[in-house]
Amino acid sequence: MPDYPVHHLSPFVFEIGDGFGLRWYGVAYVLAFVAAYALGVWQSRRGFSDIPAPAVGDFITGTALFGVILGGRLGYMVFYDWAAFSANPLVFFKFWEGGMASHGGILGIVVFTWIYARRHRIPWLNVGDSLVVAAPVGLFLGRCANFINGELYGRASTVAWARYFPSELHELPPRKVEEILDATVAANPLWNSVPAVIENAGDPRVGAILAGHLIPRHPSQVYEALLEGGVLFAILWILRTRCRLPDGVLTGVFFIGYAVLRIAGEAFREPDAGLTWGLTRGQFLSLFMILGGAAFLLRAFQKPTFPQALRRMSGKRI
Hints:
Blueprint: E1 12-15, E2 21-23, H1 24-45, H2 56-79, H3 82-87, H4 102-120, H5 124-132, H6 135-149, H7 174-187, H8 194-199, H9 204-211, H10 220-242, H11 249-266, H12 281-302
Antiparallel strand pairs: 1-2
């Protein structure tokens, strides 16, 4: 049997005290917003976006707060933890406990951009196109943070690059967890809880114990980072910079592309909710994104409008 590694990356860039410090997940969000700002300004200055360059900062800030964060949190509560949310709606504000859904974040962005476009009298489809070009960068960084945290791990696998994810301890039956803790306590009395074991997974003794009880799994977070982030960004960047397309096409392509690539990536990911028609929750929700993307494409070509840089062009490459 191959000697699979035990995942033991720290979720902290640096830690101050017990459980407090700068986390990679937070860094991923900050870098995503910085990238969105930079790409937004670039598009504005070249006439691709109707949002004035000086207003891009406020737009990205609003998108981050009201679209990504609130939408992502609400989406997680509704799609993945409805029982807890319906029993106590105040659990929504416990951001420190984690729990964000990309589908909820995307829906939140759709609502925010629609309100923003109406308020500032800017074509909504143009606003959407300007934003979706940067969205895959955020998705890539988010999935990288998921991998560092060892969360949202993949299905059981024997591929050469599979690994053991200690966070699987949270999903094991109590008797199995007790058996593992008995072994770790015998090696070191301080390793007497699941958090302690996960924190010390890099120790060879803990790693050996976990390898004897856990299942090697796909690093599906990396697959999704490359698909939803790398591949989708490349497609949208080429369309934005090399093709003369009406407003709304990029938004439609993003919706459909993200959905298709998410469905593909989820085939390697351990389901984190019940299946629907044999599909994971992420795959099922992605079906609606395909329909939404088709609607954007239909609208874009029915009444075509173009961003400033393309209004005087006649099919030329740019």
